[in-house]
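User
Class, as today's exercise, I want you to study this protein, comparing sequence with structure tokens, and judge whether sequence predicts the tokens.
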Amino acid sequence: MKCSQQCRYAVNKANKELLEKVQRRFTKTIQGMKGKSYQERLQKLSLWSLEERRNRQDLIEVFKICKGFSRIRPEELFQFDDRGKGTRGYSLKLVKVRCTRDSRRHFFSNRVIKRWNELGQEAVDATSIQRL
């Protein structure tokens, strides 16, 4: 499930819940985990929920693109806020482009903008993925 997560983005709620259900069931099969809540099992096993993993992977991809660790040029996916207004002190603030189609809202380049812009200065200025 970990490997396919980057490729698969479940858009509707039913698909997200179905994928999360697989992890819920799997964590119950591990010795000593039966009877514990899902959150307790995740914490004890040092795992993240599907949504948390997806969010983290998205932010890592944006970081790699913006910092030049990827072959994708940032201008191909994102529009940077060059007005200086509301950038909270860093130059990699992204602008959300208005979408007229519902399917466009779920594109990688749109779904990550809010979370990326909420990151602090330290995370955006990080020099490696581990420091993000």
In short: Residues 13-29 form the longest helix (17 residues).
